[in-house]
Design brief:
The protein is built from ten helices and 23 strands. It has helices at residues 4-14, 16-21, 27-35, 46-57, 75-80, 82-90, 116-127, 153-156, 425-439, 442-446; strands at residues 161-164, 168-170, 177-179, 182-184, 191-199, 208-217, 220-228, 237-238, 243-247, 252-259, 266-269, 272-277, 286-294, 302-303, 308-316, 321-329, 334-342, 348-354, 365-366, 374-375, 380-388, 403-404, 415-422.
Length: 447
């Protein structure tokens, strides 16, 4: 007799190939959809509308010294790339935040995705010949912070603590490299962490594939718990109020930095971890952990040349939990990943989906407090990943190769980083009741 979980996994596996074929978006059809959203008689100009969208969503990276490959600060800059900009926003490749708009939870704490209205505006502007408009309509330029500064400082101010790896020189060319120094944290008393951002140097951004950090205890690196995880493109992590990810007193931080030489030497590179702390008298009621959750095969699988693969993983907890954030991880053959919940009664709930995965951008999708998934004891997390080792995968460096699990950039991985707040039954029921009350009409709550 098959269990409910077995039946769900079998049903998902049968649909894997069909789902994989749907992941490549049709830019032509999407452009037609967005173009119809703007009245034909309305002229969209750079000076009056488009520049405001760029200021809010694009220029933070596309400026002199930013990580974007070109500047998008002036009309002359943008006009040159107009057609390319249209394609990128229609396919939702830019801004680079891969998270499906029609699946599961949409209320996120950090969400740089363009609205459909913004996309329609850019499509109408390009299709209308990309007119400049009246320069007197231009808004004041934005005073952007130094690209070398922490991004979360805009929200939380300067970090309370900055932990730096010891210097390491990345050669111009070579194989994947790992640097694993251990340094003092500088935190003298046990504290609860409010937010964390791992930041490679400006010169090191293109060669820092990932940079994980954990607390060193007598049990060795990682025995004291995970501090943070960074992969190319990630901003940071935010711990919600009421939870505590602990920074131990007088702890040491063990780095695990994966460098990937790409043609330019980086001398004495250092990775920085900015840590924002809750006040000293703050006592989070529940413990939050950041943990790597494998999919089945996450420790060993092979993808055949010109082949595809789907892999899944099921996880459950001994106590009720809240899922605070979800971050898929893979390399160049991963094309999509999803997270679902299998309730104890067999009901399947969609939580999150990324169907246009890119190893160039890793994001921790942080759920808003009132929608972060709640799991009772007996509920299970179902993670599904899809891989494409064919020529149809634009990020695939070589479809003729067998690809196995491993740490090198040429290898693959199959896991997700998930931040979990571990509740008790009282805390779980309290959150459930709060959400039920918020959904009831105001008249019912007054009775």
């Amino acid at each position: 007799m098959h269990s409910t979980v077995d039946r769900i996994l079998a049903r998902a596996a049968m649909g894997a190939v069909a789902m994989l074929a749907t992941f490549a978006p049709s830019a032509e059809l999407d452009a037609q959809q967005f173009a119809a959203a703007i009245p034909a008689e309305r002229e969209v100009t750079f000076s009056n509308e488009v520049v405001r969208i760029l200021q809010q969503n694009c220029q933070v990276c596309h400026q002199q010294g930013g990580i974007g490959p070109m500047s998008l600060m002036t009309y002359q800059d943008v006009r040159r790339w107009a057609s390319r900009i249209k394609t990128q926003v229609v396919e939702r490749n830019m801004p680079p935040y891969q998270y499906d708009t029609d699946y599961g939870i949409q209320d996120l704490k950090y969400d740089p995705r363009l609205s459909e209205e913004d996309i329609a505006t850019i499509v109408a502007w390009v299709d209308g010949g990309a007119p400049e408009g009246n320069p007197s309509d231009l808004p004041p330029p934005v005073e952007w912070p130094d690209p070398a500064q922490f991004r979360l400082a805009e929200r939380f101010g300067p970090p309370d603590v900055v932990v730096r790896s010891t210097p390491y020189t990345v050669p111009e060319n070579g194989q994947d490299l790992w640097w694993q120094p251990v340094v003092e944290s500088g935190i003298s008393s046990q504290r609860c962490i409010r937010a964390i951002e791992t930041k490679p140097s400006v010169e090191g951004r293109q060669v820092t594939h990932h940079a994980n950090s954990s607390w060193r205890s007598d049990g060795g690196a990682g025995a004291g718990g995970q501090l943070s995880e960074y992969a190319l493109g990630k901003i940071g992590e935010i711990i919600p109020e009421g939870a505590c990810r602990t920074a131990p007193a007088d702890g040491r931080v063990a780095f695990d930095i994966h460098y990937w030489p790409n043609g330019k030497e980086v001398v004495d590179d250092q990775v920085e971890v900015g840590i924002w702390l809750y006040p000293e008298d703050y006592a989070g009621k529940y413990r939050q952990t950041l943990t790597l959750y494998f999919l089945n095969g996450g420790r060993g699988f092979d993808i055949a040349p010109h082949g595809t693969l789907m892999t899944q993983g099921v996880h459950q907890f001994n106590t009720p939990v809240r899922i605070d954030s979800w971050q898929p991880h893979g390399h160049t053959r991963l094309v999509a990943m999803s997270m679902q919940i299998i309730r104890a009664n067999g009901r399947l709930e969609n939580v999150s989906m990324v169907s246009n995965w890119s190893a160039l951008w890793h994001h921790s999708h942080i759920y808003a407090d009132d929608v972060a998934p709640l799991l009772a004891v007996g509920d299970k997390l179902l993670l599904t990943g899809w891989y494409d080792n064919t020529e149809n995968n634009k990020y695939n460096p070589d479809p003729d190769q067998w690809v196995g699990i491993g740490d090198r950039t040429a290898d693959e991985m199959s896991h997700a980083w998930i931040a979990v707040t571990h509740l008790d039954e009282e805390g779980y029921q309290e959150l459930v009741q709060q959400r039920q009350a918020a959904r009831r009409p105001a008249a019912d709550q007054q009775q």
